[in-house]
Amino acid sequence: MSTRRSLHFLSIALQTLVAICAIGVAGAHGQGLGGAGTVQGTVKDPTGGVMQAVEVRISNRVSGFTRTTTTDAAGKFVFSNLPPNPYHMSVDAQGFKALERDVDVRTAVPITVDLTLALAGATASVEVVGHAEDLLERDPTAHTDIDQSLMSKMPLESSSGLNQIVTLASPGVIADSNGFFHPIGDHAQTQFSIDNQPVTDQQSRVYSNQISPDAVQSMEVITGVAPAEYGDKSSLVVHIVTKSGLDQPKPTGSVAVGYGSFKSPMVDANVGGGSHSVGDFLSISGMRTDRFLDPPEFTALHDTGNSVSFFDRLDAHTGDTSTFHLNVQAARSAFDVPNTFDQDDAGQAQHQEISTFNVAPGFSQVIGSKTLFTANAFVRQDHLTYSPSADPFADSPASVSQDRTLRNLGVKADVAYTSGNHNVKVGGTIGATKLDEKFTTGLTDPSFNSPCLDAGGDPSENTALRTTGQCRGGLTVNPDFNPDLLAFDLSRRGSPFSFAQTATIKEQAAYIQDDIKAGTANFKIGVRLDHYDGLTSATLVEPRVGASFAVPGSGTVLRASYGRTLETPYNENLLLSSGVGAEALVGEAAPLAPGKRDQVELGIQQGFGRWVVIDFGYYHKHTKNAYDFGVLFDTPIVFPISWDHSNVDGFTGRVNLVEHGGFSAFMVFGHAEAIFSGPGNGGLFVEPAAGEFAIDHDQKFQQTTNLQYVFEKKTGAWAALSWRYDSGLVAGAVPDFATALTLTPDQQAAIHVFCGSTVATPEAPITSCSSSDRGAKLLAIPADGAEDDVNNPARVAPRHLFNLGIGADNLFHSANAKIRLRFSVINLTNKEALYNFLSTFTGTHFVTPRAYQVHVGVTF
């Protein structure tokens, strides 16, 4: 399909969606907001009379979501802003038999459920849909539901955000430094859908500022084949429903202050309230700490940072069947770039700042009783500045600065139609990302690009050497010398390289999908058309199909799905990495082009009684033109890199023990084998591999077990313990012990290189070793001759990390304002461990040492 025909098709599709909004409306009184659902209805007595002031409850036992409301004078109730999930509803009124019913919310079209109560002495049977089935979901798409009730009690690091919650509560997610994670064997192929707004740029602490977890009502984390409505980055989709102030005539919220290790004060305030017509929710938070980023040493050096975040959600029913919705976010973070001991001794003082704003209005219109039109617009910007040390030669091997902006603008519109066993959604997106990149660098280490090697075979540090013709008197030609870089070598009287380029990346998509219920089977069928127009262009038709089958009477659900996706290049530093206007620095690099992926997922879900559900899935992904990142020296600056192809396969799993007697627990786990193949393209000062290799998001096994117990209901006293195990990411920079002997003393000491009983220190490195008892305590280095880039690469040593939290949500048994007290310990055993070491893709980073945090607040 040609580009012109693709754009013409997309234009017609979106015009059709807008036209549908003009159709006559009638019959519905509420609608889902921002991708959430609505359940409404009327409670009646046996004579058909409406019942007012009756409490109706809706809940999901697996995620922990629960909400209650009271019928109005007309007997009506409304639950809005519901995350897509199966729910259990119950009504218990004095003099009447308890009534229970299940409802499956898989569409934003309002669902009407009318409830008729039977008298307590009547012989009519109570309508109950099997409790055992509440634990199972028949959705063909593998996903995990995370509710605020779980998030609020998870012991987390003070500078963490949504990413750490996703890492600890989702299967198949591999932990990395600075809140980053590798989703389902990939690097950064993650989309956050926040109230129906797609956010596909990277979201760790070194790239952007996320909304506060306090603003999130729930998250649905999709780990299987993404439905057709999701594109761009879809290895992991985090569908977020934020909190709303609608239907809260009495405002609710909280104010809290806290303090923790590393001189870390923090404050947060949240409030929401409003009528059925207008509601608002506001969240503000701020913190500072002496350990903002995960440093390259277990000790944090030059690592002070602070952040402040503002989020507001406004909802307004502009008519009986229409709703206006507005999200506004503003955030800023500023932090020092942490040093190694060597860098600290040299006086290195690098600094980074990130400012973020986001404005996302939305509109929804109910059409008849079966159709909902939704349109969301958005503008989002991340502005990042990176400042080098005042003395350029304090930075080694180069002095680097950066000033770049990512600005996303777009519109997403869709029509959802529900009829019988069909939930159809037709929609499209149009978006543009403005890239503005400014970058300077100058080499400061004379050995980085020396023309000659000395007698020992090391690059000469003689700054008078400028050409290979000077390699005489015991000096030999350095085969890695690049004469093009000589002009930017400050140690040899060069000048900094300066780069400034802009470009706009345009993307359009259209999709149609249908969720079909057919007895004990469910089908999800869809197709998506993506068009990418950036430094290169690509158009791809992407079928997405899935099916699930509930085996009658067994508590078993089987599922299978297939999807094709267009994998678009990362936007961060895309222009420089592709060599646009930077030929003098990177040579004739080819522009990074989109990749194409085929993915399959097979899974089984099994319920045991009324309390336990197990989910297990196998996945395989083959990608032509696969992506990763390359880090620049020891900085947080990264550049996208593409590889010829990749094969990623593995499994994910989840075990949930729903709340019983105050106790609940879950375990999530996963395995990923990620094999990439060169040649590579892109990056800066990166030597692209030519053959197959296990990339740094290949990990044999990881798991998180989370236990929670509520001791006493009056005070809300509780305790939570999380146990995280990671078997270790690939650490290819040290393939054998001989390489470990060439590391600097500081690097040897960091990973605890040892020879017999001798352990390396910064003052006394190990330069030779004849003992067979040798290695590095924080790295798993293959035996001599056993290293294999695919089957047996060097890895970070396995680690077990424990976090503990205890607290009371109503310390003084108050019926109104409640005093909340929380205490947590991160890395309870003070385990010294690495996320990664000298990684081409992320550098070196240590986990957090034992850290304490205390929070005191009031909820109302």
Number of helices: 8
**Which stretches are poorly predicted, pLDDT < 50 over at least 5 residues?**
1-30, 123-132
The average pLDDT is: 89
Percent helix, as a range, is under 10%
Radius of gyration: 28 Å
Strand-residue proportion: over 45%
The helix/strand class is mainly beta
Tell me the total number of β-strands. Answer: 47
Characterize the largest beta sheet: strand count, sense, and whether it forms a barrel.
Answer: 22 strands, antiparallel, barrel
Please tell me what the overall shape is: globular
Distance between the termini: 57 Å
Describe this structure in a few short sentences.
This protein is mainly beta. Helix content is 6%, strand content 51%.
Topology:
Blueprint: H1 3-20, E1 37-44, E2 55-59, E3 66-70, E4 76-82, E5 85-91, E6 99-105, E7 111-112, E8 115-116, E9 143-147, H2 148-151, H3 162-169, E10 173-175, E11 181-183, E12 190-194, E13 197-199, E14 216-222, E15 236-242, E16 248-260, E17 264-274, E18 278-289, E19 305-319, E20 322-336, H4 341-345, E21 351-367, E22 371-387, E23 398-419, E24 422-443, E25 452-453, E26 476-477, E27 497-518, E28 521-533, E29 537-551, E30 556-567, H5 574-577, H6 583-586, E31 595-608, E32 612-631, E33 638-660, E34 663-682, E35 692-694, E36 699-712, E37 717-726, H7 737-740, H8 745-751, E38 753-755, E39 758-759, E40 774-776, E41 779-780, E42 795-796, E43 799-808, E44 818-826, E45 834-839, E46 843-846, E47 851-859
Parallel strand pairs: 1-7, 1-8, 12-15
Antiparallel strand pairs: 1-4, 2-3, 2-5, 5-6, 9-14, 10-11, 12-13, 14-15, 16-17, 16-47, 17-18, 18-19, 19-20, 20-21, 21-22, 22-23, 23-24, 24-27, 25-26, 27-28, 28-29, 29-30, 30-31, 31-32, 32-33, 33-34, 34-35, 34-36, 36-37, 37-43, 38-39, 38-40, 41-42, 43-44, 44-47, 45-46
